[in-house]
């Protein structure tokens, strides 16, 4: 699947204060976008109606791709999958689980006596079934500026050091590129710090 770029050619041209050949700019942005997605383990652009099976077994389930988007145009469907011929259960929010941000909570000590702790009662109480199927929408309709900034930084290196040079000299002028830029643009510590809050993690969380 070809994913949309995380910045535009116009953004890159403005960032560099020049006009690049379109094909060169698109390639630089595509490579930079792939680098950011690989580090964050997130698609980031909006995806509607994605279906995925995730591991449950704990009280809190974090959706794999974030942010979770739920509204009238983007419904969330949650199904606990039955094992060994058992029935699948389609769950209702605020009846069988609660949602806060990107986390779905199946049970909490305050939920004893309610369906949020689990149904049917033969299942382990207060935790998700071993496997859960989510159909959900996720990502950003408009990419946050700090992500765009990182993509443009990387793309700029891709077009200014396309040969992957460690250093180059012109007459008495010499420039030395950072180690991270050799071969193609790599994320620096500052880039990683800027992206850290967007990184994916575990899909389930055990609460003590």
Helix content: 10-25%
**Would you identify the regions where 5 or more consecutive residues have pLDDT less than 50?**
162-168, 177-183
* End-to-end CA span: 39 Å
Q: What are the secondary-structure elements, in order, as H or E?
A: HHEEEEEEEEHEEHE
Q: What class, by secondary structure content?
A: alpha+beta
β-strand percent reads 15-25%
Question: Mind summarizing the main beta sheet?
Answer: 5 strands, antiparallel
From the spread of the alpha carbons, the general shape counts as: elongated
User: Would you report the number of β strands?
Assistant: 11
Q: Give me the number of helical elements.
A: 4
Mean pLDDT equals 84
* Rg over C-alpha atoms, rounded to the nearest angstrom: 22 Å
Can you tell me about this structure?
- By secondary structure, the chain is of the alpha+beta class.
- It contains 4 helices and 11 strands, in the order H-H-E-E-E-E-E-E-E-E-H-E-E-H-E.
- It has helices at residues 9-16, 22-40, 145-160, 189-195, and strands spanning 47-55, 60-62, 68-69, 77-80, 89-91, 98-100, 103-105, 131-138, 167-170, 173-176, 204-205.
- The strands form 3 sheets. Strands 1, 3, 4, 5 and 8 form a 5-stranded antiparallel sheet that branches. A 4-stranded antiparallel sheet has the order 6-7-2-11, with no helix packed on it. Strands 9-10 form a two-stranded antiparallel ribbon.
- Helix 2 (22-40) crosses helix 3.
- The protein is elongated.
- The model is unreliable at 162-168 and 177-183 (pLDDT under 50).
């Amino acid at each position: 699947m070809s994913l949309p770029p995380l910045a535009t050619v116009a953004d890159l041209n403005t960032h560099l204060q020049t006009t690049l050949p379109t094909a060169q700019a698109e390639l630089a942005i595509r490579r930079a976008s792939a680098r950011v997605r690989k580090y964050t383990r997130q698609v980031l652009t909006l995806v509607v109606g994605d279906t995925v099976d995730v591991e449950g077994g704990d009280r809190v389930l974090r959706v794999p791709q974030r942010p979770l988007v739920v509204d009238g145009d983007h419904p969330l469907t949650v199904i606990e999958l039955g094992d060994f011929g058992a029935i699948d259960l389609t769950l209702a929010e605020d009846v069988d689980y609660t949602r806060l941000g990107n986390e779905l909570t199946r049970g909490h000590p305050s939920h004893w006596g309610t369906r949020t702790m689990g149904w049917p009662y033969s299942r382990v109480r207060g935790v998700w079934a071993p496997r859960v199927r989510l159909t959900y929408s996720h990502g950003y309709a408009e990419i946050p500026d700090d992500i765009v900034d990182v993509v443009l930084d990387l793309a700029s290196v891709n077009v200014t050091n396309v040969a992957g040079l460690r250093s180059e000299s012109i007459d008495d002028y010499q420039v030395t590129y950072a180690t991270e830029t050799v071969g193609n643009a790599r994320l620096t510590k500052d880039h990683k710090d800027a992206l850290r809050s967007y990184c994916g993690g575990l899909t389930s969380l055990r609460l003590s």
